[in-house]
């Protein structure tokens, strides 16, 4: 089935670099196929810009299959655009009407400085992972797959938390630029599984501390993050993170002066 | 524990616990005051019984401390949140990804409610002291003061606005508390949202009925 052709007006945030103040610029996107993805539409606009000798609009992208988490910007105030459970690379132009005016901005948060145009630096999320998003494991032969028993419900819940692709839309959608949904998904994913038990308390303490240190805001339970999340990570994860953090604080052991030697 | 209280998550625990104390208080306060619909004597006798023991001082201390903590924690969190976001989007989200009005304006609502609580205490607790005798016991005639105050349409409107705001604050706050305290669970999440909504509506309507009733019958 052949798609229709539509014309759009784009108001795009243009910013030369991290120190530039930036402003909106207007572009016409004519003869856009409704079968094209949003990024493909921008590719066409960029082709025209390059042909005219203008600087193309910079945006992050990689797999264009909705699984890598590289892409993401804000369309009319909505991270990844109007559709739920969708990354902007999987958002198709059939969701827009002919003649529509779209305002396109980068993810906004103090912790996500703009690199250029629609590209932001999301390394802050990597540093939260570095703080505790890992497990200790034995080297040598792989353990038998059935050695660790995991209840089905826990496995399902851990898996749904693990689907987070670290795109940062939760931070972008949050009025407080809170990274609570992201951090809680990572904490939940590992804390629900037997492999994650060794670092369980340290993980909650360190990842929350890292999240705060990066300058993210706090959770007001508005649920905008969950609505913007292309992977439908649930707000319930944040409640679990808070619980894990409280328990870790209450039960943490003091450091032994003698290193705990017998 | 300093690390806990210094963290955003710890501060939300404090907001939740202090908020819950006040949510419980306003519900009890609203329910007790419904006695004004029974009779002035019943209302005064209830007030007299509440303030006769030493328990009132404990309750007052807890409430004042909870309120101060809630306000200072809120200021700290709001300041931090504004710094974290820095700039807003040129266009606000309209569809499923929008942010609820109640959650966006919690700080503004809270500030107005705080002003209201202070003025409310000045008007009633430290208002004109009338005396009455109920069943041979001399006690404060708070019902008379209440009737007097709510003769003024301006007072009634001010109370209506503030009480609706209080209800609105609760519709977001009560449910949010469970999330903040780590007590949210997928299976009763929807139930909590409805409970929070009902709580705010019941408290607001129960309170609003009182000044309206007194204004209309007198």
Task: Explain how this protein is built.
The complex is a heterodimer of chains A (262) and B (218). Helices cover 33% and strands 13% of the residues of chain A. Chain A has two domains: 5-115, Beta-grasp domain (Ubiquitin-like (UB roll), Roll); 122-136 and 146-251, Alpha-helical ferredoxin (Fumarate Reductase Iron-sulfur Protein, Chain B, domain 2), CATH 1.10.1060.10. Chain A has helices at 38-51, 123-132, 152-162, 169-173, 180-191, 200-213, 224-228, 236-251, and strands at 5-14, 23-33, 74-75, 78-79, 101-105, 114-116, 119-120. In chain A, the strands form two sheets. Chain A has a five-stranded mixed β-sheet with strand order 2-1-5-3-4. Chain A contains eight helices and seven strands; from the N terminus they run E-E-H-E-E-E-E-E-H-H-H-H-H-H-H. The mean pLDDT of chain A is 94. The longest helix of chain A is centred in the C-terminal third of the chain and has 16 residues, at 236-251. Chain A is an alpha+beta fold and 262 residues long. With 218 residues, chain B is mostly helical. Chain B has a single domain, classed as 3 helical TM bundles of succinate and fumarate reductases. Chain B has nine helices and two strands. Chain B has helices at 2-6, 8-33, 40-52, 55-85, 101-104, 106-124, 142-149, 153-180, 189-217; strands at residues 131-134, 137-140. In chain B, a hairpin with a 2-residue loop joins strand 1 (131-134) and strand 2. In chain B, helix 2 (8-33) packs across helix 9 and helix 6 crosses helix 8. Classes of the chains: A alpha+beta (262), B mainly alpha (218). Chains A and B meet through strand 4, helix 6, helix 7 and helix 8 of A and helix 2, helix 4 and helix 8 of B.
């Amino acid at each position: 089935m052949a798609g229709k052709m539509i014309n759009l007006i784009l108001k795009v945030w243009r910013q030369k670099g991290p120190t530039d103040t930036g402003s909106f610029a207007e572009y016409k996107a004519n003869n856009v196929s409704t079968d094209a993805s949003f990024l493909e539409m921008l590719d066409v606009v960029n082709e025209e810009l390059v042909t005219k000798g203008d600087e193309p609009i910079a945006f992050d992208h990689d797999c264009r299959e909705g699984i890598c988490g590289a892409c993401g910007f804000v369309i009319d105030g909505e991270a990844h655009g109007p559709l739920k459970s969708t990354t902007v690379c999987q958002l198709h132009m059939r969701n827009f009407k002919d003649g529509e005016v779209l305002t396109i901005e980068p993810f906004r948060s103090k912790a996500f400085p703009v690199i250029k145009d629609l590209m932001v630096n999301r390394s802050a999320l990597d540093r939260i992972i570095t703080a505790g998003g890992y497990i200790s494991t034995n080297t040598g032969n792989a353990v038998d797959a059935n050695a660790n028993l995991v209840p089905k419900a826990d496995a399902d819940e851990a898996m749904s938390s693990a689907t987070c692709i670290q795109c940062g839309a939760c931070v972008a959608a949050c009025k407080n630029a809170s990274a609570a949904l992201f951090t809680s998904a990572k904490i939940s994913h590992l804390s629900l599984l037997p492999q994650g038990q060794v670092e369980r308390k340290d993980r909650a303490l360190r990842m929350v501390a890292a999240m705060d240190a990066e300058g993210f805001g706090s959770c007001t339970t508005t649920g905008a993050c969950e609505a913007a999340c292309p992977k439908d990570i649930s707000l319930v994860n944040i409640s679990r993170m808070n619980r894990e953090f409280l328990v870790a604080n209450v039960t943490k052991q003091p450091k032994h002066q003698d290193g705990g030697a017998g | 524990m300093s690390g806990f209280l210094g963290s955003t998550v710890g501060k939300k625990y404090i907001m939740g616990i202090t908020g819950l104390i006040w949510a419980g208080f306003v519900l009890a306060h609203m329910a007790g005051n419904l006695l004004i619909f029974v009779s002035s004597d019943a209302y005064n006798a209830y007030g007299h019984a509440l303030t006769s023991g030493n328990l009132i001082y404990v309750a007052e201390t807890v409430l004042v401390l909870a309120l101060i903590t809630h306000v200072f924690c809120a200021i700290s969190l709001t300041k931090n949140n504004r710094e974290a976001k820095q700039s807003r989007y040129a266009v606000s989200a309209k569809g499923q990804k929008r942010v609820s009005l109640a959650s966006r304006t919690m700080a503004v609502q809270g500030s107005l409610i705080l002003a209201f609580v202070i003025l409310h205490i000045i008007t009633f607790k430290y208002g004109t002291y009338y005396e009455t005798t109920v069943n041979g016991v001399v006690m404060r005639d708070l019902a008379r003061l209440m009737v007097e105050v709510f003769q003024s349409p301006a007072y009634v409107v001010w109370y209506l606005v503030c009480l609706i705001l209080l209800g609105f604050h609760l519709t977001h706050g009560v449910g949010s508390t469970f999330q903040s305290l780590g007590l949210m669970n997928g299976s009763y999440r929807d139930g909590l949202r409805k409970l929070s909504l009902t709580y705010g509506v019941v408290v607001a309507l129960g309170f609003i009925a009182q000044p309206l009733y007194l204004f209309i019958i007198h």
